[in-house]
Amino acid sequence: MKQKQADQLYTSILFYYDLYPEHIEDFGKIKRVESNHGVFALKETQLTPLQADEFVQAMRMLTKHNYQQVVPIIPTKYGEYVVSTKEHSYYLMPWVEPVEYLGRETQEEKIVAQMAIIHRLTVQTQKISKEKIDKSYQSLLSHWEHRRMELSRFTDRCEAKTYMSPFELSFVTHSYMLDQMAERAQYHLEKWYEACSEKEKYRIALCHSRLTRSHSIFNLENEPLLINFERASLDTPARDIAGFCRFSFPKAMWSEDEVMKWFYRYERHLPLLDEEKHLICAYLNFPEPIVFAVEFYLNQRRSISEIEHVQRLEKRLLAMRKVQRLTQKLIVEQDEEQ
Fold this sequence. Notes:
Blueprint: H1 2-14, E1 21-27, E2 30-35, E3 38-45, H2 49-64, E4 83-84, E5 89-94, H3 107-122, E6 124-127, H4 130-159, H5 166-173, H6 175-199, E7 201-207, E8 216-218, E9 224-226, E10 233-235, H7 237-248, H8 256-269, H9 274-285, H10 288-299, H11 306-330, H12 334-337
Antiparallel strand pairs: 1-2, 2-3, 3-5, 4-5, 6-7, 7-10, 8-9
Helix pairs in contact: 3-7, 3-8, 4-6, 5-11, 6-9, 7-9, 8-11, 9-11, 10-11
Keywords: Capsid protein, Virion
Protein name: Spore coat protein YsxE
Organism: Alkalihalobacillus trypoxylicola
């Protein structure tokens, strides 16, 4: 009965495109639609009207700059790009059949190159007031201080126990390293703040915000077609790059040398400014993934086994140790150069 109701809903949405479905296959948020005019992908989202407008503006910006490596969204017969119901919003794309990637470079190198091209096409240098810089700096600093307090309280709670759980023991063993990394993140943030305060300007570009393998479809030429620009916004390239690195570290087998290739590939298209490198290092050094792992352990401890909690934590700790070495290579400090 539920499937029949769902099919009726999708049919009513596809009417806006003059499409009559012959078969609908459910892939979670993506529905594969075989219709009288070909095969399409119907994407189900939770976009608010404002987010939907920003999403459409991002896609239009890519079109304006003649950017080709994106799966386009198709307008309705009324010229709208997003169709909303009471519960969800939907948009339509041509169905792209994924093929096996056979390229010599890693998929991440290809994806980060496309990120860099988008940034280069849309980059703008904007003036920024001292007050605005101060506000951005203090906001992020305050957030980090709150997160550090959460980790500190969890450390105290663990150390007060006679017997710690395996998760707690693993966390406490690394608590000093995590605190040092938080300090390092603050150092890089201060460097970014000093540079922006001196220049009173910074760069923004169209940022995907969640670019990963799962938001890319590789074609027969081993080139990625990007999807899911739902959270795209004009922001500093540093945030986009840091997010990409964090999500993609596991694909690099935790090798900082492999990740450095991503930066070399990115800078072929858009060289990074020193302050942007510092901001990337700030984002990467702060142990936010560990905070998430601790929160998950405290709030959903019984959802998975203790060993699985430990494995999730250990993976994140391994990534943080790699980040330490990566950021040392990304920014060669002045005293090391002299």
